[in-house]
């Protein structure tokens, strides 16, 4: 955890007691003392293990990593494959849009970390944009689905989990005992006890299970490491049932992960469709750009693309900044209660940094400044302000944010409470607040004097690291960063 004025260190680890420390942390303490980047480490009176780091060394080492890895900074190479199944609720509804945007975000996280992703959308008239992934197209009318349903029916008849049904002309599967025997309570909870399948409506009751088997056998050359279901909470029981049946009847070893989004409501009385909500944001952004730059912004091709990117960012942040297991209360941008979009605020700060580097390069060409020093030449001891270290904390934090998200998706434990997919949005919002305060306090591009250029070089390298974190975060959100606003 990051330190504060009350904890006299850069970072701290809370311990349960001094006895715990004596038993488990003594070796750790000795190893930390020997690290070149650690200035001091101790256990305070409140049993916090407090670390002070050599900030100059940390600046140098971390920015060196960013310079080397750039768009791969903070990412991990995962040798995994995932099948993502996306379940819209109603066509053009905001609940369906929430599912699609979460799927975009999650697939972007996976592919940025070298995970091989295959995806299939169910009944989607407005498909999402899923980069670097393979779309699987399977028709509901595919003849082989009927054959698979018959195969599954035969397996149900011979299954050890088949029990007597109280409903005429139907099969009944004892899901409760299957879950208990296989220790799947964390995964499924108590939402499913018995699964009834009508003999007269077999294809409808077994469609989702048959569809998954069809994708795995007819559209994929190997079984994926994970099957990821993204849908709405209102459809969780049906989706769970199809997943349980696939595991039971096919004895599937692949881990299945379930992410269910809560409902979407509007704060005012206007229940808008997803298209209405997007168009409302587009109208507001167009008005703002016309007011600032002129009417040509709605007709010029470059500005039209910028406006599309701003609308995309605004809408995605509205949906993704609230975690999926919370009800989402939307405010249309034109309503009295509608506030400033955090997505547009983030894009503004990214564009401001891009403009800063453009201005610097322009003044270098004019001969006003020298070229930016190489990283080895920069004196990071000149970064003395606490605001600068607070900003740099986001650079240090970024790989851990990615790792937390990635580990939750590719975990065998599969606990439903462990997903925090708003982490990237929250991190960017916090970063922008710190960056705005720093920008208002410090004049980055100073005079041409040599001593001023030395500290300017250190600050520009710091902001290059921040800029890269923005860029890499945008790739996780499937958002295009704007260089001008």
TrEMBL record:
Stretches assigned to the DALR anticodon binding domain: 346-485
BP GO annotations: arginyl-tRNA aminoacylation; tRNA C3-cytosine methylation
SMART domains: DALR_1
Domain of life: Eukaryota
Organism: Larinioides sclopetarius
PANTHER family: DALR ANTICODON-BINDING DOMAIN-CONTAINING PROTEIN 3 (PTHR16043:SF1), DALRD3 PROTEIN (PTHR16043)
Protein name (database record): DALR anticodon binding domain-containing protein
One GO MF term: arginine-tRNA ligase activity
């Amino acid at each position: 955890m990051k330190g504060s004025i009350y904890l006299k260190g850069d970072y701290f680890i809370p311990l349960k007691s001094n006895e715990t420390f004596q038993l488990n942390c003594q070796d750790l303490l000795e190893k930390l003392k020997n690290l070149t980047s650690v200035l001091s480490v101790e256990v305070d009176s409140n049993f916090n293990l407090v670390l002070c780091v050599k900030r100059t060394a940390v600046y140098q080492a971390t920015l060196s990593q960013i310079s080397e890895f750039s768009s791969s900074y903070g990412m991990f190479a995962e040798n995994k494959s995932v099948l993502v199944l996306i379940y819209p609720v109603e066509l053009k509804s905001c609940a369906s849009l929430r599912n699609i945007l979460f799927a975009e975000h999650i697939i972007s996280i996976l592919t940025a970390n070298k995970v091989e992703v295959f995806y299939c959308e169910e009944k989607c008239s407005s498909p999402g944009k899923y980069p670097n992934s393979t779309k699987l197209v399977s028709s509901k009318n595919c003849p082989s689905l009927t054959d698979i349903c018959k195969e599954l029916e035969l397996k149900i008849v011979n299954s050890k989990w088949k029990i007597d049904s109280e409903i005429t002309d139907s099969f009944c599967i004892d899901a409760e005992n299957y879950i208990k025997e296989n220790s799947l309570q964390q995964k499924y909870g108590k939402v499913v006890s018995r699964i009834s399948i009508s003999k007269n409506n077999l294809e409808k009751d077994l469609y989702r299970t048959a569809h998954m088997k069809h994708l795995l056998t007819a559209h994929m050359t190997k079984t994926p490491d994970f099957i990821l279901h993204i849908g709405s909470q209102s459809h969780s029981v049906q989706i769970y049932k199809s997943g349980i049946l696939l595991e039971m009847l096919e004895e599937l070893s692949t881990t299945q992960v379930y992410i269910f989004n809560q409902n979407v409501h509007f704060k005012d009385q206007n229940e808008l469709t997803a298209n209405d909500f997007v168009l409302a944001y587009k109208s507001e952004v167009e008005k703002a750009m016309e007011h600032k730059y002129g009417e040509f912004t709605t007709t010029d091709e470059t500005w039209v693309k910028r406006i599309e990117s701003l609308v995309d960012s605004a809408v995605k942040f509205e949906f993704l900044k609230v975690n999926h297991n919370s009800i989402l209360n939307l405010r249309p941008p034109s309503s009295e209660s509608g506030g400033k979009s955090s997505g547009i605020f983030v894009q503004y700060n990214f564009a401001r940094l891009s403009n800063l580097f453009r201005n610097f390069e322009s003044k270098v060409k004019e001969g006003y400044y020298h070229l930016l020093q190489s990283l080895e030449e920069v004196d990071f001891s000149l970064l003395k302000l606490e605001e600068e270290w607070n900003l740099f904390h986001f650079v240090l934090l970024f790989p851990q944010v990615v790792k937390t998200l990635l580990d939750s998706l590719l975990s065998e434990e599969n606990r439903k409470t462990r997903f925090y997919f708003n982490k990237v949005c929250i991190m960017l919002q916090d970063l922008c607040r710190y960056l705005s305060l720093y920008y208002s306090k410090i004049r980055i591009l100073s005079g041409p004097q040599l001593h001023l250029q030395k500290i300017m070089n250190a600050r520009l390298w710091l902001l290059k690291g921040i800029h890269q974190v923005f860029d890499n975060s945008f790739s996780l959100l499937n958002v295009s960063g704007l260089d001008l606003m």
